[in-house]
Amino acid sequence: MNTSDWMKCNSTIQLKPITKIGMVGSHDSGTSTILPQYGITPFTIFPKKHRSFMKRWSKTQQLGIRDQCIAGIRYFDFRVVYNHKLKKFYLLHGLYCQLLETALQDITCFLTEHDGEVIIIDINHLYQINSLNNFQSLCLLIEECCSKHLVLNDYNKFIIPLSQLVHIKQRLFVFCLNPFNQKLPLYLFPQDQIDSIWPNKNETRKMLKRLDYNSKVYQNNQKLTIIQAVVTPSIKSIRKSYYTKKYPNSTIKIAEKTNPLVLKWLQTSSAFVNILLIDNVKMNDEIVHFMIRRNNFIEKY
Question: What is the Cα–Cα distance from 219 to 32, expressed in whole angstroms?
């Protein structure tokens, strides 16, 4: 399957709006690169001596951003922190990850090379952005890196077909928190126009049960809707993994156990899923392939 150009190659979805197209998103998308040299963020309960241990739990993806695009991922989950000392924006998940600028450039380059694809970036956590100036710098960085592909929030872009987004050369949706309640630039969409449904379960069995429930409840939602298919380990479970081999000792290992069961669930579910969020996306990922094919036989009414 050509996952690099799956939107362009699938005639079934050309007349559908983005809210009626099934796709896969990556959870904490930028964590393939962890930068422990910049130290642990102040938002974790673990001391610095456990940095290598924390790295195993911070890392949810093994593929970089560009490779995820090639693998068929069209939704990216970003947590952004501003480092005041270095005066740079980073992605993070417990630990600092790659530069936000690098991630944005990777997505922009991919869109330039693949002219029929549409991508969604969701900046849903902001840290250490303490002033309006910090936030304006973030907005400017997004504009500088992505301007030629940004979707403008000047009229309802959630009801026009995919082919129209491609025609008007607006193929990158960016959703962002608005911590200072300012009027957002036209190229940023507010968080109230997207829903992300978190199961908040620390066991695969419980997560799958909640996943099934959430997919049915939200299948007719009118917004862009992310159905999260991720296990969230409890602090107790993470601590237990430090002392015993009975519990998976990393987010990646949990995903390796969970994702095949998510695929089995997906193959038997009749509910429409707009964006399915997973950990540990792979090249030739079976979940991605099935979600793409699913667009041909699962309808959102």
Answer: 31
